[in-house]
Design brief:
Layout lengths: L1 H8 L8 H4 L3 H16 L25 H16 L7 H8 L5 H13 L3 E5 L7 H5 L3 E5 L1 H18 L6 H19 L5 H34 L5 H39 L1 H13 L13 H24 L8 H27 L5 H14 L3 H12 L11 H9 L18 H6 L15 H25 L5 E2 L8 H17 L6 E5 L5 E7 L5 E6 L2 E6 L1 E7 L11
Antiparallel strand pairs: 1-2, 3-8, 4-5, 5-8, 6-7
Helix pairs in contact: 1-3, 3-6, 5-6, 9-10, 9-11, 10-12, 10-14, 11-14, 12-13, 19-20
Length: 566
């Protein structure tokens, strides 16, 4: 309805009228009215019927010329970045490229102005004659609504295109901030300023780590799913990606265990005092509210801020510290990163098979579909179906005891046609319901609490045995194998795994190798000794003999860096 009002106010000005002689304000206003009326009218070629009913700054994204409108708005955003406030239609055309038509650009500017993305002001800087003064010339700039819409679209595009990263550096920064908090908590009365700054830095770094990890794992899965886009590029990308994942997993195991230990130490020293100190500092400048008289706005704000900080700490703790039946997010991330490696290798194997000419199941089904399409008649289709899948109609039904007794007395060959075979007696319930069993209420749900408790105890006992074996093997300094006199059974099994990993990585020509177990719990450094000496280790199952080596075994889950995510 508003375009009708604008048209009604568009009254022509007669030649030589006082309005025109007084400076042309009325004439310029009428020109402006003509442009808005033509934009909003149903017959407008630039906006169209569907565009006149909506005046949202996001409208231009859903219309026919959305690409042109988007380029125009990006030109204004780029100009604002260069501290240019106003643009003429010629400037916009130059930013879009000289292949753009000036009339089309002008129509786009009018449409965007009608939707509220742009505003215009009369351009009198280039007026040299009376005719130029009365000709419609305008400067355009972003409105507050249009600028907000572009900022929202920029955030949207950035979120969709964000690849993310597994930030091992962020893990180190988080551990540094936790050490600062641990020192503040252990020092008695903590400084509220230092506590607040440390907690803010911790939250900001952790938020960035979590968001980047989520974006990276999403983009990684998309890379795996779209591997057939460019096979050669994917093969080259695979090696770098696997190395990247392995390095992050190692850092996550080492630094994550340190973070979990620091969290436990801070909570033991009193994390509530730190959180309340930060909440009081944020509530110190609370403005008076409209609550009942006598309510201290700082106390109200402190309660809200304290709850928020406790929730943040609980979320942060859950990211690195596991609870019974609730593994930590760091552990889940580590599992996802590990699972991505065999998925990548499987994709590479599939690409290699495809390149070598081997067929896969999808190719077989496509070939079979072609054979079905080329079958000459329906009988051939049935023969092809039976040959390919080996499926046919049912030849027997479940029978009762009387029918079985009758068949024992008078056997019927399996090759007998259905029409010539005697009829089968089936239960009326089977005919009516399709089942022999009488329907009733479902069975009671079995309580598995005791079994789950047993499994938890069993897992805890196995974890304790493994920890004891690691403690038995750990050496404070490099030690000769011949100096390891005896080992219990559990420790010896773990020792054989470590020794096997180290000897596998020891290639000819090298005298020293350092490896880490796949779960990141232990590291071993093996050095070949000269002289050909032999070592013997006594176990309950026998004596282990072999060439002597210098070995240094490090338990990465010792008490000061206990991996609480286990």
């Amino acid at each position: 309805m508003w375009w009708l009002t604008l048209q009604a106010t568009n009254r022509p000005v007669r030649e030589g009228s006082p309005a025109r002689l007084a400076g042309g304000d009325t004439t310029r206003r009428n020109c402006r009215t003509d442009r808005l009326a033509s934009l909003a009218s149903p017959s407008s070629g630039s906006a169209g019927r569907g565009e006149q009913q909506v005046s949202s700054p996001f409208t231009y994204l859903t219309v026919a010329k959305a690409d042109l409108y988007r380029r125009v708005m990006l030109a204004f955003v780029a100009a604002k970045g260069r501290f240019m406030v106003h643009l003429r239609p010629e400037d916009v055309r130059e930013a879009l490229g000289h292949e753009a038509d000036l009339d089309e650009v002008t129509a786009a500017l009018l449409a965007l102005e009608g939707w509220g993305n742009l505003r215009s002001d009369p351009d009198t800087s280039r007026v040299t004659t009376v005719e130029d003064f009365h000709r419609a010339r305008f400067l355009y700039q972003l409105t507050r609504e249009g600028e907000a819409a572009e900022e929202a679209l920029e955030v949207y595009d950035e979120a969709l295109g964000r690849r993310g990263a597994l930030q091992a550096v962020a893990l180190a920064d988080i551990a540094t901030q936790l050490r600062v908090l641990q020192e503040l908590a252990a020092g008695g009365e903590p400084d509220p300023v230092k506590v607040h700054l440390a907690l803010r830095a911790l939250v900001d770094r952790f938020t960035d780590l979590a968001a980047n990890a989520q974006a990276f794992m999403g983009s990684l899965q998309r890379s795996i799913d779209l591997h057939d886009v460019d096979a050669e590029a994917f093969r080259a990308y695979k090696d770098r990606l696997i190395d990247y994942l392995q390095r992050f997993i190692t850092d996550l195991v080492a630094t994550g265990s340190e973070i979990a230990a620091l969290v436990a130490q801070i909570e033991a020293a009193g994390v509530d005092a730190l959180l309340e100190a930060a909440a009081w500092r944020e509530a110190a400048d609370a403005a008076p509210g409209a609550g009942p008289e006598g309510d201290d706005p700082r106390a109200v704000e402190f309660g809200r801020r304290a709850t928020l900080w406790r929730e943040r700490w609980a979320g942060f703790r859950g990211w690195f510290v596991s609870a019974p039946q609730h593994p930590s997010q760091a552990k889940l991330l580590r599992s996802q990163a590990r699972a991505a490696i065999p998925q990548l290798l499987h994709v590479v194997a599939a690409l290699n098979e495809r390149r070598s000419g081997r067929t896969d199941r999808s190719a077989d089904f496509r070939t079979l579909a072609l054979w079905f399409a080329e079958a000459p008649d329906e009988a051939a289709l049935h023969r092809l179906w039976r040959t390919a899948f080996g499926l046919s109609g049912s030849r027997h039904l479940t029978v009762d005891a009387d029918t079985l007794a009758a068949r024992m007395d008078d056997p019927v060959p399996a090759s007998a046609p259905w029409a010539a075979a005697p009829a089968l007696q089936i239960s009326p319930r089977l005919r009516r319901t399709g089942s022999y069993e009488r329907r009733g209420k479902p069975s009671r749900i079995t309580d598995r609490s005791e079994q789950r408790r047993h499994l938890v105890e069993l897992a805890a006992r196995e974890a304790a045995e493994t920890a004891a074996a690691r403690a038995e093997l750990a050496t404070e300094r490099p030690t000769r194998l011949s100096d390891v006199a005896t080992l219990p059974t559990d420790a010896f099994r773990l020792f054989l795994g470590l020794l096997g990993d180290a000897l596998t990585a020891l290639v000819p020509g090298r005298r020293e190798v350092a490896v880490t177990t796949s779960d990141g719990s232990m590291a071993v450094r093996l050095t070949v000794l000269e002289g050909g000496s032999r070592a013997e280790i006594v176990t309950p199952d026998g004596v282990f003999r072999g060439p002597d080596h210098l070995v240094h075994i490090v338990d990465l889950t010792v008490s000061e860096r206990a991996e609480l995510t286990a």
